[in-house]
């Protein structure tokens, strides 16, 4: 049974790849997009993610997965528009090696981002991703804590920009999020007056130890249930 606000995740393994191949439901545009990937891994993640998204949205709307129609926003954000012209239900997807996440909401515009916790130190990305305030706070941490704190800020910022539909067309270093290791709702401060992100709340989500995940949503109080996606959830 689908819930109002849910975050579903899968490890994109052979079983999910086989399931996606066994029920081709992508639109011609999606099939063409899948063929444009140079990396087999990225192609597979896209096909699995989009198939599961179609199945979930279809189940919520009582449609077959093939009948679900997505529109694409100006910066590439896919969304579903109902027959009255309203964007509904809301969803957002993130895929990284080893993890696909689909966030679904009946009440909030959402953005979700996951990053793999790799062994890097990320110094070379600090100026690109961090505001001056964030950089000072992260550099004041013990060196061993810095990579995780940096990735936290990165996922929070990407989730916000994905909720707003901007994607990374906006400079990540031009706005602030909280740096602390906390999953409470975080204040977002604007620096430049051009981007408007303060209507979103962002919080961290615990899914798997290998990845950090954040979700941004337009309703502060939205509670999201985190669930591993199974065939039973998909009604199969
Ligand atoms: C959105 C964006 C931040 C994704 O970054 P990423 O870390 O590589 O990827 P993630 O796995 O977290 O997210 C990808 C998903 O986000 C969604 N998405 C795409 N564009 C989006 C946007 N502007 N806002 C929110 N979500 C978006 C899609 O569902 C996509 O999955 P799909 O390829 O299966 O459709 C990045 O692609 C971006 O900045 N795009 C906007 C700029 C751009 O390239 N525009 C060109 C297209 S018009």
Task: Describe the secondary-structure layout.
Elements: E1 5-10, H1 14-22, H2 28-35, H3 40-61, E2 70-72, E3 78-80, E4 90-96, E5 99-105, E6 110-116, H4 126-129, H5 132-139, H6 146-163, E7 175-176, E8 189-190, E9 201-205, E10 211-217, E11 225-228
Parallel strand pairs: 1-11
Antiparallel strand pairs: 1-5, 2-3, 4-5, 6-10, 7-8, 9-10
Helix pairs in contact: 1-3, 2-3
The chain binds coenzyme A.
Structural notes for this entry:
By secondary structure, the chain is an alpha+beta fold. It has 2 domains: 1-107 and 219-236, Alpha-Beta Complex (Ribosomal Protein L22, Chain A); 109-218, Ribosomal Protein L22, Chain A (Alpha-Beta Complex). The chain contains 6 helices and 11 strands. The chain has helices at 14-22, 28-35, 40-61, 126-129, 132-139, 146-163; strands at residues 5-10, 70-72, 78-80, 90-96, 99-105, 110-116, 175-176, 189-190, 201-205, 211-217, 225-228. The protein has a 4-stranded mixed sheet with strand order 4-5-1-11, with helices on one face. Strands 6-10-9 form a 3-stranded antiparallel sheet, covered by helices on one side. Helix 1 (14-22) packs across helix 3 and helix 2 (28-35) packs antiparallel against helix 3. The model has no long low-confidence stretch (mean pLDDT 89). The structure holds coenzyme A. Coenzyme A binds at residues 46, 49-50, 75-78, 92-95, 111, 113, 158, 162, 165, 167-169. The site of coenzyme A (COA) has 19 residues, from helix 3, strand 4, strand 6 and helix 6.
